[in-house]
Amino acid sequence: MIILGLTGSIGMGKSTTAKMFAEAGVPVHDSDETVHRLYAGKAVPLVEAAFPGTTTSGSVDRTLLARYVLGDAAELKKLESIVHPLVRAEADAFLARSAAAGGPIAVLDIPLLFETGGRDRVDKVVVVTAPAEIQRARVLARPGMTEEKLASILAKQVPDADKRKLADFVIDTGKGLDAARASVKAIIAELTGDKAGSASG
Fold this sequence. Notes:
Layout: E1 2-7, H1 14-23, E2 28-30, H2 31-38, H3 43-50, E3 55-56, E4 59-60, H4 62-69, H5 73-101, E5 105-109, E6 124-129, H6 132-140, H7 147-156, H8 160-166, E7 169-172, H9 177-192, H10 195-200
Parallel strand pairs: 1-5, 1-6, 2-5, 6-7
Antiparallel strand pairs: 3-4
GO molecular function: dephospho-CoA kinase activity
Pathway: Cofactor biosynthesis; coenzyme A biosynthesis; CoA from (R)-pantothenate: step 5/5
InterPro entries: Depp_CoAkinase, P-loop_NTPase
């Protein structure tokens, strides 16, 4: 089974592309979704112990947690040391299930794949990209997003140009959904050796 790492900077269309892989029958593990689930489950007592007063009604309150970790590298590292191993364990269980099911490919959707040293966990990397002005427009349309927040997020991410150089495959979502979907199908076809499959859809 080929483990495909899916990544891309904020606003590049990674979540939409992940759905396209899922629609094409490829199992996808979503790191962000896993964190949301952990923040309502396994991670709650651990986060509360490390950051008292950040959980309410049995869930981690991201707003309260942000007061601890925003702009504090040491506190953020402490949080990551709790969350990353839990996400990793969930991803490993997902890969074991996918391998047992006999599928040719499984996708790990990892937003910070290069930033967190995740390259060694996957066989191939797909980087989702889009022109900078499209990325900016998408992100600034999100509730509560500001130019300052966007600049701060981008400063922590490996630049898009560098990600594209490190990628095995690049999907440009700036060209529209149909073009992105065609790229997804072409990648699946190349990895499975099913050239006919890509033509038939």
